[in-house]
Amino acid sequence: MRRPLQTRSESSADRMLAATLALLDEGGPGAVTVAAVARAAGTSNGSLYHRFGDRHGLLLAAQARALGTIELETATAFAEADTEPDDEQAVALLAAAAVDLFVRHRGSLRAFLVDAADSEEVQAASTAFTHRLAGTVTGWLEQRFSCGVPAAQSAWRLLFALGASRALFEDDAISPTPLASGALADALGRAVLAVVR
């Protein structure tokens, strides 16, 4: 008999986290209120408080979900790149994946890497996340291209800077001439190759 309750509870928690991430995408952290999340998830305020404790607990859980999803998608992109024997094609795949990830997860990245800087817990989790990504990217570049740590770290910083700008700004705010994601990924791939070769 308890199994259905747990399933409903997990489903309710999933809906609350999905609603939180959708609200972050639409309006940033200010849009995430207990009432707005409960309404969007079709649950009650009390259910949210019971599951997450408070708004801060909800944001921490949403951060864990969002950053975990990004890490999983990053691992998938690297696994695909590992199967590509051509170095240029492998880097092109990764550049396209990076641009796509930063655009698709724009709201979460902005909320958890920039806007929520007033929470030490959020900052610590975000820093750990970026360091894990840095380790993944630099480790792969060092192995694939037998490049040194400075070159791999420079390439990572290039990727992260471009990705961060995609998360923070709409393309037309950066340049009067919008750049299609494909063209951006191509240029990024060439830049990374130039740094590590």
From TrEMBL:
Annotated signal sequence range: none
Residues annotated as transmembrane: none
Domain of life the protein comes from: Bacteria
Record feature DNA-binding region, as residue ranges: 33-52
HTH tetR-type domain mapped to chain residues: 10-70
Keyword vocabulary terms for this entry: DNA-binding, Transcription, Transcription regulation
Molecular function as annotated in GO: DNA-binding transcription factor activity; transcription cis-regulatory region binding
InterPro entries: Homeodomain-like_sf, HTH-type_TetR-like_transc_reg, HTH_TetR
Keyword hit for DNA-binding: yes
Protein name in the entry: AcrR family transcriptional regulator
Organism from which the protein derives: Nocardioides marinus
Taxonomy of the source species: Bacteria, Bacillati, Actinomycetota, Actinomycetes, Propionibacteriales
